[in-house]
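Feature request, filed as a ticket because there's no other form

It would be nice if the structure record came with a short human-readable summary line next to the tokens. Right now we just get the raw output. Example of a typical job, pasted below so the devs can see what we mean:
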Amino acid sequence: MLWETAPRLGLVDRTFLPPVSEVARAWWQLAADGQLAEHARASLVRSFGGFGIAVAVAVPLGLLIGWYRPLADLLGPLLEVFRNTAALALLPVFVLLLGIGETSKVSIVVYACTWPVLLSTISAVRSVDPTLLRLARSLDLSPLRLFQKVILPASVPAVFTGIRLAGSVSILVLVAAEMIGAKAGLGYLINASQFNFAVPQMYAGIVTISAIGVAFNQLLVALERRLSSWRPAAPG
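Raw output as currently delivered:
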């Protein structure tokens, strides 16, 4: 209601913030002529592709590093350096090395998504309840069975915290990457709309990105609940 009424009452300049009804009409026009689906498809392929690669690499690597403490101590400083290096700061490097095509865009998403998943997985393994570990060892479980039956299940919630964070990062970083040298994608749509002063279309692209982010997060939450169904529900 505030978004609709403020421009109409002159509280903000409707040239730069049109009423939400105009944005909705622009969104519908983009959807009707297929432009929105084309741009969304391009973004989703890049974002989910990079996200999937990052999860496939970072989760096993994080489990390995977290399980072997000497390896974690050895790689700790290096991981901190990469974690604190913003992905967008390296975007020009990716473009210079890989060009402005699909490879650089997917690669920057992989880089940005890897660190939250990797570090949360390492932390999850290293913070497993010591009581559970002592109890499992008292049952003479082999290291492999201990990992399968205790460490892996207990790590799922913390691992998914990193995965959910990486899911949002994958979309945000990609949008910025698509504003450089892309010919399709929601980031390209927003940037092109801004240059052409098609403000309602620009906001339509922004709303679409927000909706995709919320839907993706809810999908990950549902998957986490399914994989953590063995855990007792919290009181209340």
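Something like this underneath would help us a lot:
The mean pLDDT is 85.
The CA atoms of residues 7 and 14 lie 5 Å apart.
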